[in-house]
Amino acid sequence: MAEQLSGDLRLVGLTKSFEQFTAVQPTDLTISQGSFFALLGPSGCGKTTTLRMIAGLEDPSGGQILIGDKDITSTKAYQRNVNTVFQSYALFPHMTVLDNVAFGLKRRGDKDAKRKAEEALELVQLAEVGRKKPVQLSGGMQQRVALARAIVNRPDVLLLDEPLGALDLKLRRQMQIELKRIQSEVGITFVHVTHDQEEAMTMADTIAVMNGGRIEQLGDPATLYESPRSTFVANFLGQSNLLRATVTGEPGSDGTVVVRSHDTDLEVSRAHLPDGIREIFLGMRPEKLRLGTGGGPNQLKGTVSDVSFTGVATQYLVRMPWGRELTVVQQNDGSARAVVGENVTISWAAEHGFALDAHQDADAGVDTED
Amino acid sequence: MRWVKRHLLAFAALAVLFYMLIPNVVVAIFSFNKPRGRYNYQWTEFSTEAWQHPCGTPGICESLGLSLRIGITASFVATVLGTMVAFALGRHRFRGRAGTNLLVFMPMATPEVVMGSSLLTLFVMMGVPSGSEAILIAHIMFCLSFVVVAVKARVASLDPRLEEAAADLGANAVQTFLRVTLPLAAPGIAAGALLAFSLSFDDYIITNFNASPSSITFPMYVWGASTRGTPVQINVIGTIMFLIALVVVVGGQAYSSRRQKAA
User: Strands of A298-309's sheet, edge to edge?
Assistant: First the structure.
C-alpha cells in the first residue's frame, strides 16, 4: 500500500451536537490513503454520524474534514469525491442496475459511463444482471450493486455504513472476504462503520473503537484485542475476565510486576501495566487461561460451575472462592475435560494478562453486541 | 352445491361489477337509438346517425370544448401547484404546517353547494365577472386539494436515502429532483392530475353558480338539455369519454405491469 500523504483522510476536531446531546465529541483522526479502516462501536456511539459528516450528508458543528491538503468541510455532498454504500443500499428503484451504477459517472459527464459501469458490475460478479431492476435481485446482489455504484466513481474515500447488516451470517462471511478482495484490488480508502467486532477485526487494517461519541482506542485488530486500554474495549472486542487487584511490587528483573488480588499474588507484564496506577483490573482473555497448572505462574483455584461444548472448543465457567465466575475456553485438542463440580486450578502466563485502571465501570461494553 | 360455494366470491365480484357498469352500458346502447320523441329514454330502432354527427345538436360541441379547455387548464395548474404544496408539506417542518394541512383538506369536506355559493359571493364582492375565468379559478381551487392528497401520499412513501444517495453520487439539487425524486413521485402526480381532470370535467354545482350564459360547460349542457329533451349525441359523447377513460386506465395498468416485469 503506497504511503502517500496526499490522499489521507483527516478529521481535525470534528464534532457534532444536536439540540439535546453531543453525538460526536471533538475527534482527531488520520486515515491513511488506501487503508481499510473500521469505525466500531455499539449503536448510538456516533460512528454513523461521523461517517455522514465525511460524506457531506450531515453538517459538522465544528472542526474540519480534509482529504490530503484539501479542506472539504464546507463543500456539499455532491461536490465531494467521496461515495457511500448505504445500509439500506438506497438503489434507485426506477432505474436498471446498469443505470444505477452509471448514475455517478453520468453526472460528471463521463462519455465512457456505460462501459465503466459494466466493468464495475463485472468486478462484483454481476455482469449478467445489468438490465434488471433492483427489486428483482436478492439482498446480497443488491448489496454488491450498491458497492459497484460507489466504486465505479473511483472516489478518494469509500464509506460503508453497516453494509452487511441486512445479510444472513453465511452471506455476510462471503461478502467480508469479497469486500476485502475488492478493496485490495481497487486500492481505495475504505471507511467501514460496523457494530460487529468480528467483522471489523476480519476486514480492517485499523480499527477505531467508538463509545459515547469519542474514540476509545485506535489500533490494529491484534493490538486492540491483546492490549485493550479500557474496560469498554476489553469487553466489546471479545470477552474478558476482569479481576480487581492492587499493585504491590516494583517491576522485577524479568519485566513483570506483582499485583495482589483476593489474597493471591499474581504477575503481569510491566509492558501491559499503565503508568502510575495502583488499583487495577487485571484482565485475561478466556482462551489464554488453562485448566491445570500448565499455563504459567499465575494460579487460582475454583470449582467448575458450567461446561458448554462448542465443537472446536469447550467453554467453562469456574467459580472463584469469592463468588465470581471466570470464563475459560479450552481447545478440544484431546486433553481431558473437566466436569461440573470438579475443583480445578486455572493458570496463565504473566504476558497474557493486561491491566486497566480500576476507576471505570468493569461492565462497560458488555452485552452491547448482538 | 360445493361448486357454488367455491365460486361465491367470483359471483359476488361479478355482481358488483355488473352493478357498477350497467349505467355505462345503457348509455352506450342508447347512443345507437333513434328516439321518436325528444327524449331518448325508450328503445325504438338501431341507428348510427348520432355517431356520424356527434356535433349535430346546436351547442353541444361548444360546451364540450369549453369543458375540455377548463378541465385541462385547471388540472394542469392544480397539478403543478399541488405537487409543490405536497412536497412542502411532506418534506419540511415549518410554522403553520398543521394549519396548511387543514386548509388543504377543507375544500374536500365542504359541501359543493356551500362552496359554490360562497365563491359566487366572493367573486361578486371582488368584482370578478361570472364566466369561464371564474369557473377556472374555482376548479383550480378544489382540484388542488385532491392533487395535494394524492402526491403527498406518494412523497411520504419515498425513501429520503435515495435523494441522499443521488447527492452522494454527485447530483446537485436540480439533478436529484429531476432524475430521482420526480420519476419516483410521478405515479402520484399522474393520479392527482387524472383525478383533477375528471373532477373538473364532471363538476356541475360549483360551475353552475359561477357560470354566465356564454360559459355553458358540458355537464351544464346535459342538465339543461334533459329538461327539454335529450339528444342522442349526449350518449355518444358520454360513451366516447368512458372509452377514453378506460383506455387511459387499462393502458396505464398495462404499462406499469410491463415495467415491473421487464428484465
Answer: A290-291, A343-348, A298-309, A313-319, A325-331
**ipTM rounded to 2 decimals:** 0.77
Q: What is the pTM of this model?
A: 0.77
Across the interface, do A107 and B162 touch by the CB < 8 Å criterion? no
Q: Can you read off the three cell numbers belonging to residue B226? A: 334533459
Task: Count Cβ–Cβ pairs < 8 Å, chain A vs chain B.
Answer: 65
Q: Which CATH number fits domain A5-226: 3.30.720.120, 3.40.50.300, 3.30.1360.120, 1.10.10.400?
A: 3.40.50.300
The 3-state DSSP class for residue B46 equals strand
Asked if A56 reaches chain B (Cβ–Cβ under 8 Å), the answer is yes
Residue B33's SS3 state is strand
Domain segments of chain A as ranges: 5-226, 239-357
For residues A293-308, one letter each, b for 16 or more C-beta atoms within 10 angstroms of the residue's C-beta and e for the rest, the string is eebbebebebbbeeee
Contact A191, A157 (CB under 8 A): yes
Please list, in sequence order, all residues whose beta carbon lies within 8 angstroms of the beta carbon of residue A65, skipping any fewer than 6 positions away.
Answer: A9, A10, A11, A12, A14, A53, A54, A71, A72, A73
pLDDT tens digits, residue range B69-103? 999 999 999 999 999 999 999 888 888 888 988 99
Interface of B with A in 181-210 (CB under 8 A): 183-184
Cβ-proximal residues to B148 (8 Å cutoff; 6+ apart), any chain: B82, B85, B86, B89, B104, B192
pLDDT at A241 over 60: yes
Kindly indicate whether the domain formed by B57-230 is annotated with CATH number 1.10.3720.10: yes
C-alpha cell at A159: 464509506
Q: What is the pLDDT of residues A246-286, one digit of tens each?
A: 888 777 777 778 887 888 888 887 777 777 778 888 888 99
Torsion angles phi and psi, residue B199, rounded to 5: -65, -45
Report how far residue A180's alpha carbon sits from residue A202's, in angstroms, rounded to the nearest whole number: 9
Domain range summary for chain B, segments of one domain joined by +: 57-230, 233-263
Question: Which CATH number describes the domain made up of A239-357?
Answer: 2.40.50.140
Grid cell 375528471 is found at B198
